[in-house]
């Protein structure tokens, strides 16, 4: 079995975006999705991690709760998926790859709406 390439990951992420219901979907226009093999040292430091295998995705951008009409000239938000950690989790857990990617996309979309990791984990635990 061949590991899916970056284009396949991007397609899975876009499919996950397409499943996000309204009213949330209406606030996701302009978010770009990228795929990298691993997080770089700067990204790991920004999220308080040392091991690139521990980070499967990240949101870069201003969250909606911090947006203002006074902000201008900023790049659009980006969700980056890290292919190698996701592949490792896929192999280790047996969870379907599209489910893993969807989980990471929804998690990073939560950051777009201003939710912290702790808040999202609490929501997941209560679901």
Order of helices and strands: HEHEEHHH
Whole-number total of structural domains = 1
Specify the structural class: alpha+beta
Q: What's the level 1 CATH class?
A: Alpha Beta
Biggest sheet layout: 3 strands, mixed
Identify the quaternary structure here. Answer: single chain
Radius of gyration: 15 Å
Mean pLDDT: 88
- Give the overall shape: globular
CATH architecture: 2-Layer Sandwich
Strand order in the sheet with the most strands: 1-3-2
Predict the CATH topology.
Zincin-like
Helix content: 40-55%
Unreliable sequence segments = none
Proportion of residues in β-strands? 5-15%
Number of E strands: 3
Cα-to-Cα separation, first versus last residue = 34 Å
**Number of distinct helices:** 5
Provide a descriptive summary of the structure in words:
- The protein has five helices and three strands.
- It is an alpha+beta fold.
- A three-stranded mixed sheet has the order 1-3-2.
- It is globular, with a radius of gyration of 15 Å.
- The model has no long low-confidence stretch (mean pLDDT 88).
